[in-house]
Amino acid sequence: MKKDANTPAANEPTAERGSQAIHRALQLLKCFSVERPTVSLTELTRQTGLTMPTVHRMVKALQSSGFLVQDAVTNRYSLGPAVMTLARVMMHRSANEDLVTAAMPHLEELRSITNETVGLHCPTAEARYCVAELVSRQPLRLSTGVGHTYELFIGATGHAILAFSKPETVERVLTRLEHADRRDYPEFEIPTREQIEAELATIRRQGYAMSLGEVVANATAVAAPILSDQGIAVAAVNVTGPADRWTRPLMEQHTSDLIKVARQISARLGYPD
C-alpha cells in the first residue's frame, strides 16, 4: 500500500513528528491575509500542498483551540479569537503604546461628550484595526473590539484613513475593491470604486467621514483622521452607536468635537496642526 507523503513514518522520533505538526499548523495559518481573510478547505489544501485528510485533521485541531472558526453558511474558515488574543499582546508592546497613551484622555473626553462608544484605529498596508476602545456606558451600545480588523474600503473609519493615505495606497485599495469577490463580505455593504472616490473627495474637504449601517446593520459611525506632519493618516478616531440614537443630525452636531480630539492627539504625538 502506498504511504501518504504527509504521514510521518512509524519509527520517526516523536519530537520530530510533533515539530512537523507545528510547522503544518503554521503553514495553514499563513494562508490567511488581509486580502483573503476567509479560505476554504480546498484552498488550504492547494496553498499548503498537504493532502485533504491532513489539512482537515489540522484544521479541526486549530478550531478546537480557537485559532480558526468556520462560517456555518459558507463553510469557509477565518482566524479565530485565539489569534486576536496573541495580536493584542503584540500591539500592546508595539509603537502603538505611545499612540494609545497620547489618545486615551481625549477618547475619554469624547465618550463623555457623546455618550457613545469611541475607538482608535490604525492602518496596516491595506486595512485598519482597532487598537483602543472605550465602550458607551449606555445599556444598548456597540463595540468593535480591540484587535478587530476591517478593510479600508468599508465604513467611516476606513474611509477617513483612506482619504488621507498616500496615493499609491489609495490606488492599491481601490484596485483590490474592483476585484473583490462580494461573496467574501456577505455582512458588509461594499461600495463601488466611483462611490468611494466621490466620498473620499468629500472627506478631504470636510475633514471627517460618516457611515449609516455600512459595516453593521442599524449602526452608525463618524470618524476623523489623525494626521502626521505630512498630512498622512496615522490613525483615526471614531464614534459609533445605534442608528436610532446616534443619528446623522447628532453626529453632525459633534463633528467639531471629533475633529478637535483628532487634532489634540496629533499634537500630543508631535505633529503640528
Automatic annotation (TrEMBL):
Transmembrane segments: none annotated. Residues 19-81 form the HTH iclR-type domain. InterPro entries: GAF-like_dom_sf, HTH_MetabolicPath_Reg, Tscrpt_reg_IclR_C, Tscrpt_reg_IclR_N, WH-like_DNA-bd_sf, WH_DNA-bd_sf. Keywords: DNA-binding, Transcription, Transcription regulation. PANTHER family: HELIX-TURN-HELIX TRANSCRIPTIONAL REGULATOR, ICLR FAMILY, HTH-TYPE TRANSCRIPTIONAL REGULATOR RV1719. It comes from Dactylosporangium fulvum. Pfam families: HTH_IclR, IclR_C. This is IclR family transcriptional regulator. It comes from the Bacteria.
